[in-house]
Design brief:
- The chain is mainly α.
- The radius of gyration is 24 Å and the shape is globular.
- 74% of the residues lie in helices and 3% in strands.
- Strand 1 and strand 2 form a beta hairpin.
- The chain has a two-stranded antiparallel ribbon with strand order 1-2.
- The N and C termini lie far apart (76 Å).
C-alpha cells in the first residue's frame, strides 16, 4: 500500500469513528424548522417591505439637501429594501428543502444582490452613527456626507463599490449545482476550505466586528454627551442610544458566532463532536433568518421613533390628497407642517439634544 493510500485509509477510519459518536438526529424536526423559517421570512418580507418603502418615500424628496445622517438613513433603507426583495426566492428555497427552481442566472444574481446589501447596510449604519456623534459633539468637524459638493456621492459610491467587491469574492463561486435536485450553493472547485475560511473571516471583520466597534463606541460617547445636555427627555434619550447598539449586536452576533464555529471546524475537523456540528448546521439557517430582523428594526429605530419623521410622513400623505381635503385636515390638526408653530429656536435645540437619528437629520 502506498503512503497516499495509507493516509486515505486512515482518514476514512477516523471519519467513521467520528460519526459513530453522533447520537443526535435532527432530521425529524426538519419539517418544523422549514415551517418556522418560512413564517419568519414571510413576516420580515411583509413588514420590512412596508416600512422601508415608507422611509424611502418620505426621505427621497430631501436627498439632495439632507445632511449626512439622513443621507445615511436613506442608504440603509435602500440596502434593507434590496435584501427584502430577495426574500421570496429564499422562502421558496426553504419550503422546498434547498431546491432552486429559477435557473443559474437568478441563482447568481439573487445571491449577489443579497451579499452586496449584507455589507452595505452595516457600512452605512456605522458611518451614520459616526456622523451623528460628530454633529452632536464636534459641529465644526467636516462632515462625512456634506450637503454641498461631490464628496458625499464619492464616499457613497465608494462604500457601494467596496460592498460589491466583498460580495463578488463569495459570489464568484456561487452556482447552480445539479445533484439529486438543483440547488444554489457556494462551492469552489478547488481549495474549498481556504475559500470558505477566507470569506468567513472577511465577513466577520467587515460586516460585524468593524461596524460594531464604530457603532458601540460612538453610541457610548453620544450617551455621555446626552446626559449633560440641558434639554434631553430624561432617561429615554440615554436608553435609546444603547438600544441602537443592542439591536445591531442581537441581530448579527448569533449568526457570526455560529459561522465562526463552522470556520473553526473547517480548520480542525475533529475539534468538535459530531453532535455539536449537527446542532451548528441545523441552527445556521435559523440564526441567518433571525439576523434579517434588522430590516424591520432599522426603520423603527432610525425613523418611526422620530417625531420629525412622523410629521414628514403625515405631510407627505396629506400632499397626495386632494387640496381641499388636505387643507381641512391641516387646519383641524394640532401639528402644522415641519412640526408645528412652536418656538423654532427651542425646537432646534431639542433636536440637537435628541437621541433620534432622524431628529438630528431634520
Amino acid at each position: 500500500m502506498s503512503a497516499q493510500e495509507h493516509n486515505a485509509t486512515l482518514d476514512l477510519y477516523n471519519d467513521t469513528l467520528w460519526f459513530i459518536h453522533c447520537t443526535i438526529n435532527l432530521d425529524s424536526v426538519g419539517d418544523y424548522r422549514r415551517i418556522a423559517l418560512f413564517l419568519i421570512y414571510l413576516f420580515i418580507f411583509m413588514v420590512g417591505l412596508l416600512e422601508n418603502v415608507l422611509v424611502i418615500w418620505v426621505n427621497w424628496r430631501r436627498r439632495h439637501s439632507a445632511n449626512g445622517v439622513l443621507f445615511c438613513i436613506l442608504n440603509v433603507s435602500l440596502s434593507d429594501l434590496m435584501m427584502i426583495v430577495t426574500m421570496p426566492f429564499f422562502m421558496m428555497e426553504v419550503t422546498m428543502d434547498k431546491v432552486w427552481l429559477w435557473g443559474r442566472f437568478l441563482c447568481k444574481v439573487t445571491y449577489l444582490v443579497y451579499a452586496v446589501n449584507f455589507y452595505s447596510s452595516s457600512f452605512f449604519l456605522a458611518l451614520m452613527t459616526a456622523e451623528r456623534y460628530l454633529s452632536l459633539t464636534r459641529p465644526s468637524f467636516p462632515a462625512f456626507f456634506p450637503v454641498l459638493g461631490r464628496r458625499r456621492w464619492v464616499l457613497c459610491g465608494g462604500l457601494w463599490v467596496l460592498s460589491l467587491f466583498l460580495a463578488l469574492l463569495e459570489n464568484v463561486h456561487v452556482d447552480l449545482l445539479e445533484w439529486d435536485e438543483p440547488g444554489c450553493y457556494m462551492l469552489p472547485e478547488h481549495n474549498f476550505t481556504e475559500w470558505f475560511v477566507s470569506v468567513g473571516f472577511l465577513c466577520l471583520v467587515f460586516q460585524f466586528l468593524g461596524p460594531a466597534a464604530v457603532i458601540i463606541t460612538c453610541n457610548v460617547l453620544i450617551a455621555r454627551a446626552v446626559r449633560t445636555a440641558p434639554d434631553v427627555q430624561g432617561r429615554r434619550d440615554v436608553w435609546l442610544v444603547h438600544v441602537y447598539s443592542l439591536v445591531f449586536v442581537l441581530c448579527w452576533l448569533p449568526y457570526h458566532f455560529v459561522m465562526f464555529l463552522m470556520i473553526v471546524d473547517d480548520i480542525d475537523p475533529f475539534i468538535f463532536s459530531c453532535n455539536t456540528m449537527e446542532v451548528l448546521y441545523f441552527s445556521f439557517s435559523v440564526v441567518h433568518s433571525l439576523s434579517l430582523f434588522h430590516c424591520v428594526a432599522n426603520p423603527i429605530l432610525y425613523n418611526f421613533l422620530s417625531k420629525s419623521f412622523r410629521d414628514n410622513l403625515v405631510n407627505t400623505v396629506l400632499s397626495q390628497l386632494p387640496r381641499d381635503g388636505a387643507a381641512n385636515q391641516l387646519g383641524a390638526g394640532t401639528n402644522a407642517p415641519n412640526g408645528g408653530g412652536g418656538d423654532p429656536g427651542k425646537q432646534r435645540k431639542l433636536s440637537n439634544a435628541s437621541t433620534s437619528q432622524s431628529d438630528v437629520a431634520s
